[in-house]
Write a structure and sequence with these properties.
- InterPro entries: CheY-like_superfamily (IPR011006), NreC/VraR/RcsB-like_REC (IPR058245), Sig_transdc_resp-reg_C-effctor (IPR016032), Sig_transdc_resp-reg_receiver (IPR001789), Tscrpt_reg_LuxR_C (IPR000792), WalR-like (IPR039420), WH-like_DNA-bd_sf (IPR036388).
- This is Response regulator transcription factor.
- The chain is an alpha/beta fold and about 210 residues long.
- Helix content is about 50%, strand content about 15%.
- The chain contains ten helices and six strands; from the N terminus they run βαβαβαβαβαβααααα.
- The chain has helices at about 10-20, 35-45, 65-75, 90-100, 110-120, 130-140, 150-160, 165-175, 180-190, 195-205, and strands spanning about 1-5, 25-35, 50-55, 80-85, 105, 125-130.
- The protein has a six-stranded parallel β-sheet with strand order 2-1-3-4-5-6, sandwiched between helices.
- It is elongated, with a radius of gyration of 18 Å.
């Protein structure tokens, strides 16, 4: 029997995940956590084979999803972690895998794919949601999955945009032309495989560029 701990700050999500996980009769949910603090405490007392965790949960410790993944990887290096996220884009996928996740599921598809993801990570392999695989193939089919790298100036532009500044304001502050700032923003979004400002701001928040 595969032992699972699930973590999500929405009780209804945990209920649904538990039903899906235990439906096959081959897995059992041995613990539930409503955030990173409870998850970390639970792992100290409850042995498990797989952790299924939401990406963004409120908490005093490691509320940032990447921080939580990194901590789990350091403290439990052999424990597979399946990350479920609403931010279903290639940038989040790459960053999550680089921080130790063994599987990344889009929240919209988690009910269908979760049992398959559990089987896959228990076998020591990586699982990626179908919608994310499609995005990855469309973005850069020849590239391996790795965390995207922005130049220093691109990071600066993304950080300032996410903090609420406009392209014009950034250009004035850093003494570059508006067209240059626009180009750096566009290049950064291409590198991250992000197509909207909302996703760009979410990425900046998730990686700690802005609070």
């Amino acid at each position: 029997m595969i032992r699972i701990i699930i973590a999500d700050d929405h009780p209804i999500v945990r209920v649904g995940q538990k039903v899906v996980i235990e439906a096959s009769g081959k897995c059992i949910v041995v613990g539930e956590a409503n955030g990173p603090d409870q998850l970390l405490a639970l792992l100290q007392t409850t042995p498990c084979d797989v952790v299924v965790t939401d990406f963004a949960m409120p908490g005093d410790q490691q509320a940032d999803g990447y921080g939580l993944l990194g901590l789990l990887q350091r403290q439990y290096p052999k424990l597979p972690v399946i990350m479920v996220t609403m931010f279903a884009n290639v940038a989040t996928l790459r960053a999550a895998l680089s921080h130790g996740a063994k599987a990344v599921l889009a929240k919209s598809a988690s009910a269908l794919e979760l049992p398959q993801a559990i089987r896959t990570v228990v076998q020591g392999r990586t699982f990626i949601s179908e919608c994310l695989r499609v995005q990855l193939d469309q973005a850069h089919p020849a590239q391996s999955i790795q965390e995207p790298k922005l130049s220093g100036k691109e990071q600066e532009v993304v950080r300032m945009l996410a903090s609420g500044m406009t392209v014009t304001q950034i250009a004035a502050q850093v003494n570059r032309s508006i067209s240059t700032i626009s180009k750096q923003k566009s290049t950064a979004m291409q590198r991250l495989c992000i197509s909207t400002d909302v996703d760009l701001f979410a990425y900046a928040r998730d990686v700690g560029m802005v609070p």
